[in-house]
Amino acid sequence: ELREAVEEVLTDLERDGVRVFYLSSASPTPGVEALLPAIEAAPDEPLPARHRAGVTADSKAMYIYTSGTTGLPKAAVITELKLMMVASLGQICGLRPDDVVYTTLPLYHSAGLLVGVGGGVTVPMLCPPGATCVLRAKFSASQFWADCRRYNVSVIQYVGELMRYLCNTPKHADDREHRVRMALGNGMRAEVWKEFLQRFGPVAVWEFYGATEGNAGFINYTG
């Protein structure tokens, strides 16, 4: 869905030495590589330490574009330290190596990428072999719980409106037939929170607040 935007500035990116990839098996754009074949062909062995010899806590890990308080979207710098701090949120809330995390949020934002996928990646550092992430290309309220049952999901991610959409779906006899024990996200209204628990069962809700470009955040750690 970002193809046209990438192609519009591709010449400038190439001039600046920026490499662009599609996470797919083939590329529809000349000059842009398909990354999936390279990933599938990569060996399972850890990368040599020399590849990260110069990496420090202050090194730039990635840029995440935010909507920006004023003007156009802006690239927020995510350092290695911030990446680890945000990704550890799941462990703080009790994410376990045997958990299956279901993420329907976009991976170009912090919640889906750093908290969801990142949280599963960081768990092995303390408790091998690590959590499992189930990714869905687009959120579907009607298929949400069917997916949770199909993939034995135990942890879900949300933004406030996502939970409201789930509560607005027709009620079913199997609404509580799932393994979800924890929900991690932000922006859920109090009335939706109550309705969600009453309908779908005693799921531990960890509500947090943070900003990609911010320097602080908080979470209802005590419930």
From TrEMBL:
Nucleus keyword on record = no
UniProt domain AMP-dependent synthetase/ligase: residue ranges: 40-218
- Gene3D superfamilies, alphabetically? N-terminal domain of ligase-like
Alphabetical keyword list: Ligase, Lipid metabolism
Supply one GO BP term.
long-chain fatty acid import into cell
Known catalytic reactions: tetracosanoate + ATP + CoA = tetracosanoyl-CoA + AMP + diphosphate; a very long-chain fatty acid + ATP + CoA = a very long-chain fatty acyl-CoA + AMP + diphosphate
Question: What InterPro entries does the entry give?
Answer: AMP-binding_CS, AMP-dep_synth/lig_dom, ANL_N_sf
Indicate yes or no for the key word Lipid metabolism. Answer: yes
One GO molecular function term of this record is:
long-chain fatty acid-CoA ligase activity
- What are its GO cellular component terms? endoplasmic reticulum membrane; plasma membrane
Family of this protein? Belongs to the ATP-dependent AMP-binding enzyme family.
Q: What is this protein called?
A: Long-chain-fatty-acid--CoA ligase
